[in-house]
Amino acid sequence: MTLWFVFALMTAAAIFAVLWPLGRGGQPRNDASEATVYKDQLVEIDRDLAAGLIGAPEAEAARVEISRRLLAAVDHRREPPTASSLRLRRSAALIALVGLPILSVAFYLPLGSPRLADFPLAARIHAPDATQPLDNLVAQVEAHLEKNPTDGRGWNVLAPVLVRLGRYDDAVRAYHNSITYNGDSADRRADLGEAMAGAAGGVVTSEAKAEFERAVALDADEVKARYFLGVVAEQDGRGADAASIWNAMLAKAPPDAPWRPLIQAALVRVGGAAAPALPDGAMAAAKDMSEADRGAMIHTMVDRLASRLKQNGDDVEGWLRLVRAYMVMGDRDKARGAQADARQAVANDAERLRQLNEGLKNLGLDG
Amino acid sequence: MIAEAGHYALVLALALALIQSTVPILGARWHDPALMNVARSTALAQLLFVGGSFAALVTLHVTSDFSVVNVFENSHSLKPLIYKITGVWGNHEGSMLLWVSILALFGGLVAAFGNNLPLSLRAHVLAVQAWIASAFYLFILITSNPFLRIANPPIEGRDLNPVLQDIGLAVHPPMLYLGYVGFSISFSFAVAALLEGRIDAAWARWVRPWTLLAWIFLTLGIAMGSYWAYYELGWGGWWFWDPVENASLMPWLAGTALLHSAVVMEKRNALKVWTILLSILTFSLSLLGTFLVRSGVLTSVHAFATDPTRGVFILLILCIFIGGSLSLYAWRASALKQGGLFAPISREGALVLNNLFLTTACATVFIGTLYPLALEVITGDKISVGAPFFNLTFAPLFVPLMIAVPFGPLLAWKRGDLLGAAQRLVAAGVVALIAIALLWAWTLGGSTLAPLAIGLAVFVIAGALSDLAERTGLFRLPFGTTLRRARGLPRSSWGTVFAHAGVGVALIGIVCETTWNTEYIGSMKPHDTAHVAGYALTLDGVRQQQGPNFREMIAQFTVSLGGERLSVMTPSKRNFTTRGSTTTEAALLTRGASQLYISLGETAADGEVAVRIYHKPMVLLIWFGPVLMAFGGMLSLSDRRLRVGAPKPARAPRQLQPAE
């Protein structure tokens, strides 16, 4: 409401600026004219002569010239303004009173956003927007780290949040910084690799693989790194290798490890040996789903993805996921078909095509 | 509310400008003083509203209100305060708002201080001013609105182009715009004179201060821009004949010509029609500059964003104003009274010569800048017209002009005595010859042309000083009298001396820098030493540092001369995370008027840094010259007296000579 009040005041001030001279009736003042300038010039010559800047003959010649111009100017004077006509003033006032507000509002309404309040940064940080509290916190931490880049703990806190937000590239940078300032460790390397895989759209790139290998070198029991090395093997089509890595993990794992179901599901995916007897309730829950049900569920998901990509083919990551899914399901023909479709869908966009080809290479499906 | 109030203020300014562009003209037609006076109050109110609108945008940038698209795209909450403010005009929309604010400022100044103008002239001038303003308000509101909003504001902005995060942005664009836009006043006066069908010496008296003011700002703006490019872009050049630079040089050349022809008009009532044409051309070139830079026709640091609709809109404005004013000129110029006569050899004649050379030089630059563009549009061929073209065409035009500069002020009005002037310049000529001889001896076997060019510059400076000596009677009269006369000398004469000497000073700088510039380009490891022009520069080491919104790699050099340690120089490379780009911050060490210049290149894996080291002799004179010119302009501007050119009377009819 205040906004409209301010607008009204501003409009009134603008109208007043037009009405004011009209209201004063424009009584003709002593009008400045050409003759005044010439008279001033004559005075100036006397001054120059007195100061010795010009000689007497020059001064005389200048005086003659200017006097001549002065005479001409008097003959040729501008017509003095007449008294103002009331009719003209009234019509001008009408234009101001009606035209000005209409024009302003007609211009402002389609362009402006009168409903939006100001959002200065200070206010937003102190009173976080209820819908994006996490974004605000992240921004605060990032701002803090921008100023204190050596705060290793800060990077440690920030990195997993960035992964959750899907900002994988930033997360990779954050994990790098965390390793630089907190020192190297197996779990940080594994997390870094995971973020890299995230940045590559779920594909474990050779860079990410290097990180996982480093992690395993630091700690042979690093769970995440070993799991992903299994994924690498699976990606390369070495299902048996993947199964052996994962089986080894299960064999060593404590019975109540929370990641057991994940590994088992992965084993099922590569068609590896079934898990040993499951003592745990959690595992039982995972087993509730029958083999057929699980297969059906995966199929529906893949089909849904395929039909979505048929409508909107811009999503490179989506294509890669689809190709990988077909490969995992052992359907190489469909994978090849999806690959061709993907190439066709992004053919017009060089950047996307490059991403796609890189991703396919990582999947071991190039050419 | 600030954003919306600023937006609405801009709309109101448009509405006021539309009223200001029609009502006063009708008032002048019908001799109605009340309607003519509307021009004045609306011009002031327009200034108030645009000023408010600009202040609103500055506030939004300072408070980092990212709900405004313009702030989101060009600001960052971590940017230092000064760059938050300068960032307002470091982008297309904001810079256009600055442009119209300055336009409104000049209109407001004419309204506030134009009491000595005839009522109908003032009404016409302000109305023409409002036409320009309306066109640009429409342009801003329709194609480049800085007040558009985002409903869900992002948390962080995209930051300003790092190259622009420099103190230069605080000075260069406002100065340049004050210059560009200042010429709109002489344009408005010219169009008003054509509309009214009358022009006289009084007209020139009223136009002169505005032209001078605009010229001063344009001079300083161009010089500042050149210095900024020199230290920020990191390759040590100060003028590239880049189309954008040419776009600012063209109005400067035309404006300089205008300045001189306006003097002839005020003092001698001559060259009226020509002065009107120059006024129109100067502002047209300013508009052309705006078009070239803002339309995206050219890509450079200055083109913030390219959008075809903007280009078409500005082209339309350009066609209407340039085409319209030139047609008006063709139609009405013949109706104007012709002015006084003068002999070819006279002060007037000298100024006509000056105008000829300056406009020809301007035409050269115009062709060199627009020909490649036109060719690309028509045939699709891309050619580049660079320094060689301009050196070959511009220099031959400037040499005779420079030779003529000292003669001008020494010639009398109406009919001059070239021989007499030449005699009075003998001293200056001798000084110049000595300078040439000395330089030749000193740089034996070096460049042949450089000593000659410097001799020319010395001649210009010495010529300006001889003019001063002549006027004060130095060496001819007792010293006391000289001092008294010097004090009595109009400040405008002092202004001439300073401005002309400034041209010579700049020329010395240009010649020295281009001829005797030495450079070292190579890779250096810590503790390596490079030798440039007698200086030894040792790289002590490289360290990293965190700035407010960038990371910085700083190299430290110890400079010594003849084994004696002089100073430490720290060039750096800044890496801006938000935009993911880097800038080089050159380190400068000033020794007298010369400078040592270091800028960093890429760092190799083994810690080697690529460096460029330049020794630039007398380089500072390049910018000191324009500062001197602007100072001369200010002296002349501060001289509120009327300018009268006393003519040299014709020889008296021969009288009977007494027998000897």
Estimated structural class of chain B:
alpha+beta
| SSE sequence of chain B, one letter per element | HHHHHHHHHHHHHHHHHHHEEEEEEEEEEH
CATH superfamily of the largest domain in chain A: Tetratricopeptide repeat domain
H/I helix tally of chain A: 18
CATH top level of the largest domain in chain A is Mainly Alpha
Number of helices of chain B: 20
Please summarize the sheet with the most strands of chain A.
none
What level of helicity do the residues of chain A show?
Answer: over 70%
What would a concise description of this structure say?
The complex is a heterodimer of chains A (367) and B (660). By secondary structure, chain A is mostly helical. Chain A has helices spanning 2-23, 34-51, 56-75, 86-111, 121-126, 133-147, 152-165, 168-182, 186-199, 206-218, 223-235, 239-252, 260-270, 281-287, 291-311, 316-328, 332-345, 350-362.
Provide a descriptive summary of the structure in words.
The complex is a heterodimer of chains A (about 375) and B (about 650). Chain A is elongated. Chain A contains 18 helices and no strands. Chain B folds into 4 domains: about 160 residues, no CATH class; about 200 residues, no CATH class; about 100 residues, no CATH class; about 100 residues. In chain B, helix 6 runs antiparallel to helix 11, helix 12 packs antiparallel against helix 13 and helix 17 packs antiparallel against helix 19. Chain B is globular. The interface between A and B is large, with 86 and 83 residues.
